[in-house]
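protien #1 (seq + structre)
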Amino acid sequence: MTRVLIFISFLLASASIALAQDQGDPVRMIADRIEIAPDGDLIASGDIEIFYGAENLIAEDIRYDTETETLNVTGSILYTDENGDTIEAEFAELSRDLQNGLLKSARIMLENQLELQAAEMERIDGITAELRGVAATSCISCDTRPPLWQVRASAVRHDKLKRTVHFKNAQVRVADIPILYLPRLRIPDPSLKRAAGFLVPSIRSTSRLGTGVVVPYFIPIGTDKDITLTPYISAKTRTLEVRYRQVVKNGFYSFDGAISDDDIVSSRLRAYGRIVGKFNVLDGYKLGFTLQSVSDDAYVGDYQLDTSETIESNVKLERTKDDQHQEISLSNHQSLYDNEGNRPFLTSFGQIEQRVPVARIGGTIFVRGEFWGAARSSDLNATGRDIVRANTGARYQQVWGLAAGTQIAFEHESRLDHFVINQDDAYNRQNTTSTHSSALTLRWPLIGRGKTGAHFVEPIYQIASVRMSKDIAVPAEESTQAEFDQGNLLALSRFPAPDRVETGQRRAVGVNYNYHGMTGYELGLSLGQIEWETQQSDFSQTSGLAGIKSDLLLAAQVETPIGLNFYARTLLDDQEKAGKSEVISKFNFKKYSVDGRYSFLPADGDEQRNDDIAEWTLNQSYKVGGNWQLSNSLRYDLQADSLATAGIGVKWDGQCASFVFSADRRFTDLGTSPPQTSFGFSIALKGFSTGGVSRAIKTSCGTGR
C-alpha cells in the first residue's frame, strides 16, 4: 500500500486537546491510515509515528479515546524519549502527551547499556518508571538462553531526574543461578557518571597481610569534589584508605592516605598520606606541590603503595614564556633505608633564564641565574654539612649555514660561581670562581637516495676550551653521577650541575647515520668520543668520561613496519670492554606485545655502587580470542642469579562483565619491608557507572533493534 503521510493535530479530535497544544509542544502523527469512528475516537493503523517534542512513538495500531484522552496502542511498540532511551512493549495505554500510562511486556534500554525487562511498567509524568516483575542486565539476550548475569526483582523504580534505579527484593543471578539476595538495591543508571555508591570490590591477598576484601565507596560532593573511602579488611590488618579530590577555578588538589591497625606492628597505628596540587596563579605562574609522609619505612612496601625507595615532598613555582623561564622549588627527602648515610633531608632550587636575540650579528644570548642549597639534620662536622651555591652567567649561540649543507656552530658561556659551605672543616666556608667555556662545532650532512630508501650521514667535529679563573675545592653534592650519551656529546659540560667543571681543551668527534626505507624500515647509528688535553679526574670511573680519552659511545636503533623495534646504547673502553649498557626491544603485533630490556652498571664506589648491577626486565601480553588477555612481567638480577620481581595477569573482558586476576612476587626488600607475594581478583558488571561501559547493544532483537 502506498503510504499516505497525514500530519494531523489532535485539535481535530477535541477542543481540550487544542488547549493543551496552545500551552505546549504540538502532537503530530504520521500513519498509513487514519479514520474517525462513529463514537468520535480517532483510529490509526499501518506504520504509525507520533511525535511530541523530542519524543517519538512507533506503533501498528492506535485508538485515541476522546473522552478519556488516552491512547490505546497494540502490536509492536517502540518508544524513544528525549535522551535516546527506548521502551519496547506489546500493549500500552498512554496519555495524549505520552508522559503517563501503562505498558505491558515492556523492555527499557538505558543509554544503550542497561536493559530492564518487566511484565508491566507504569510511566509517571515522563520522569518516573515503576516496573513489576523485572529482570535487569547489560548482557545481550536475544534468545531463550539466560544472560551471563542478571538482577531479578519484584519491583524497580527508575528516576530520570535523579538518574537512579531502585530494586526491591533483588536477586543477583549468574548463569541463571541465584548467588545473592538483597532486599534493597540502588544503582546509578548508565547516564550518571558521578553517583554515591560502592565501586568495584576486589579480593587482595599478600603473604604479609593475608587475604582480605577491598570495598571502595564513592561519595560525590557537588560537581567539583568527591571522596572515596576504601576499607581493607583481612585477618592481619584493618585499614581505611581515603582519597579526596577537588577541582577549583584555577587548578586542583587531592589527598590520598591510609591508616592501618595491623598485626605487623601491633603497638601503634601505621599511616601514609600524600597531598598533590596544581594551580595557575597570577600572571602565568604555575604552583605545584606534592607533600607526603609515612609512619615507618616498611609501610609503603607492606601495603604496596609505591615502588620508590624515597618519599619525596616538594613545592614548585614556575612560569615559562617564549623567551623566559623561571622556577623556584623546595624538596624534602625521606629514605626508606637505614643505611643512606648523610643524604640531605632538604634541598632548594631556583632559576631564571632569559633568551635575548642579537640583532646585528645574529645568534641568541641566554642569560641565567640560579641557586641550589642542601641541608642536613646532623650537627656533626662533615656529617651535617650544609651547602648553598649561586651561579649567574650568559651563553651565546650562533649557527652559520655554508655550502653543500655544511653548518658551523659557535657557543660561548661565561659564568660566576659562588659556594657557601657550613659544618665541614675540610672545605673553605666561601668559595668563588668564574668559568669561561667556548666551543666550535662543524657538521657536514650528506644525503643519498637509492632504490630502497634514503641514507643520511652526518660527520661531527667539535673543539672546545674551558678555563676557570681559580681552582676551588667544593664537595660533589649534585654531580655524583655523570652520564655520557648522544644528548651531551657536544655539551659544554657533561656534569649535571656547576659543582664540577670540565677544564682544559678538548675535541669531540662523532658520526650519525640514518636509513629511511621505502617500506617502513628505519635504521639509526651513532658513534662519539671525546679527548681532553688533561685528564678529567672528577668523573667517576664508570661514567665513560674519566681519563684523557672517553670511552667510545655506541648507539643504535632499528624500527620495522611489523612492529619490531630495537634500541641499544653502550660505552666501550680502550680494551673494547663494555661499560654502562642498555638494550631495549619492543614488539607490538595484533595480539602479542613484548617489551624486553637489559641494563648493566659496573661497580663504582664514586656512584655508591659496590657491586655490578645487571638485570633483565620482561613484560608480555597476549590476546586470546576476542575477550581474554594474558600478561606476565619479571625482573631478573643477573648478578644474584635470581628473580627480583615476577608477576602474571589474566583478564577477561566480555560484553557485559569483566574480571581481572593477578599474582605478583617481590623477592627483595623495599625499605625495611621484606619480600612478599600478593594476589588480586576483581569482577566488574558493566552497564553501571561503577563497572564501566558495556559494548553497545545493537542486535536484531525485537522492533527497531
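ok now protien #2
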Amino acid sequence: MSKRLNRLAKESSPYLLQHADNPVDWYPWSEEALKRAKEEDKPIFLSIGYSACHWCHVMEHESFENEEIAEIMNKHFINIKVDREERPDIDEIYQRVCQLATGTGGWPLSVFLTPDLKPFYVGTYFPPEDRYSMPGFKTLLQQLAEAWRYNRDAIEKQAEQIVKGLKQLDEFAIKGTDSIDKSILDEAAVNLLQSADTINGGFGPAPKFPNSMLLSFMLRYYRFSNISKFKEFVFLTLDKMSEGGIYDQIGGGFHRYSTDSKWLVPHFEKMLYDNALLPIVYAEAYQLSKDQRYAKIVRETLDYVIREMRSDEGGFYSTQDADSEGVEGKYYTFTKDEIYKLLDKRDAEIICKYYGITEEGNFEGRNILHISTSIDKIAKELGLSIDEVRDRIENSKKILLDAREKRVKPARDEKIITSWNSLMISAFIKGYRITFDDRYYNIAKDAIEFIANKLSKDYELMHVYKDGKAKIHGYLDDYAFYISALLDMFEIDSKAEYLDHAINYANYMLEHFSNDDLYYTSDKHEEIITRPKSIYDLSIPSGTSIAMQALLRLYHYTQEDAYLKKAISIMKRYATLAAENPFAFGALLNGIYLYVKKPIEIVLITKDGNAKRWLLNRYIPEGIIAVTDEIEDLRKFAFFKDKAVNDKLTAYVCKEFRCSLPLHSIKEMEEYISSL
C-alpha cells in the first residue's frame, strides 16, 4: 500500500521531497504554515538540513518515519522543513542561535519556535529515545509540549533572551581600523602558519577541510613576501590532498572533508562548491610552479563536473550523496578481489601497489584508493619503464571507472544554485587559462548565459532553479559570485557585454543590499527576527568578501568612486578581525592583498594566441586584465581610454597611475611586468 504524501510532495527541493512520505504533517516554509501557528497558538518545530547530509537521513529514519513520534509532532507542533541550500538566510539566523545557545551548530538543525518565530529551544541531531546524556527526540517533544501548555511565561522569557542575545551579537562593536596595509597580511599569515600541519598538510587536527581560500591567500602572501615556506606549505597540502582518499582517484573531484589527519578517509559526499574552489587553487599552484600534476588535478576535477554535475541546460547541480544503497562510500570503494577480476594480473598488481589496495582493506573491509607509492618505485620493482607504468595506471583507471558507472550511484541533488554555479564558472575559466581547452571556455560561457536567461530579469537574480522554475530572491552571494564570474570571463574574452552586465548587477547589489557594509538579504526578502549579514569565509567564501573583491576590480575598470568607497569600508570594518582570526576570512584577505599590493592593470590587444596564452597562464593574482582583438567598443570604460592601437600586438601595463609605453612583444611585456 502506498504511503500518504504530505505537503512536501509539491516542492521541487530533493531534500524536501525525501520527506514527502513521512507521517509528519510537514509544511515547507510558507505563509500558510506561519499563519496556522498563530491561529492555533502552537509552537513551531523547524527542521533544517540538506539532501547530502548523512545525519539528516539518520534522524528522518529514526524519528520522522516513526508513527508514534510523528503523532506527537502533529498534535502539538506546526512542523516546518527547510532545505538550507534553498533558504540559507533562515539557516544562517538559526545556526547563529544554535551556536549562541549550545556553542556548536550543524545539520540537521532542530529549532523550536514561538508562533512569531522566536527560538526557545535548539539543537542538532537527536536520537529517537534517550541515549547516554542526550535526550531522546520523543522525550524532548513531550517535555516542550507540556512546557508550552503549562509554563508558557518561562518559554516566552527564554525566547526573548535568545533574541536579545542574537541582536546584541549583531550590534557587537567590531574593532575596525583606518589603516589597510601589509601588517594585516603579515599577522594573518603568521597566525595561519602556527596552525599548519607541516607533515600532512592542512590546518589543525582531524577532521580536515580543504580550506582552499586560505591556501590561495598563502600563495599570495608568498608572492608579496617572497618567504618560500608559505608556498611550500601550500604545495605540500595540495600534494597530500590529491594523493589521499579525499580526492576521487578514479573519477576525479573532491569529497567534502577528511575524517582523519592524513586525508585518507573522507566523508564521501561531493559538493559543487568544493569542486569549484579547489581547481582554482590547484590552477594557481600550476601557474606558479608549472608542475603538470596540478594541471592534471584541475582537468580531472572539471571533467568530473562535466560528466556528473552538469545539466542539459548548461547549469550545474548541487551535490552528490555520501551513501549509495544505504552504505556510505560503497560506490567509491573496491575490494582487492574486485580489482583482480576487472584487470589483467599485471595491471591489477600495479593498481594495488599504487593505490594501497589490500585484502583487509582500509575502510570497513573495502579499500579507499589513495596514492601509496610512486610510479618510479613501481617501475623499478617490476622492471618496467616509467611511461609504461603510467600508461597502465591511466588505462586501468578507465576500466575501473567504467565498472563503477554500472553500480548504483549516490543520489544527486539537482537544484541549480546561482552562487555555486557562479563559483563553478570561475573554476572553468581558471581551467581554460592554464589549459586553453575550448571545452572549458564554452561551458563557462553557456553557464553565464543559463543564469542570465533562467535566473535573472532586469538584473534581479533568483537564487535557485529546479524543474524549469526559478524561485527565491537572490542573496548577496548570488550577486557577488556572479559579478565575479562575469569579470573572470571579461579577463579572458573582453567583450563589453560582460563588463556592462557586471556593472549593472553591482549597481543593483549596492542599491538593495547596502548598509554600513552589506546585508545578506535584499530589501525584497522577508525579515524574520533579524536581517543577517554574511561575513565569514567558511566552506564557501562570504558574499561580503567576494563583493569587496569584485567592487575593487570594477573600480579599476570604470574609475567609479562608489565601488572603491564601499570596498574600502568593508576592508576597514573587518581587516583587524581577519588578521586576528584568518581561518574565517580567507577570501577577505585575498581582497585585502589585491588592495595593498596595488593592482597591475594589463590591456592586451592582439590576435596572437601565443601572447594571450602567455599572459593568462601567468600567476598575477593582483592582475586586472583585459584581452581583446578589438578595442573600440570598450573605449566607454575608463580602463581603455587613450589606448592607441596599430596592426601589431599592443599591450599597456599600468600600476598606481603610471603606465608603460605601448609594448609590442611577449618579451617586452615580461620585462615590464617583472620590473613592477
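The mean pLDDT is 96.
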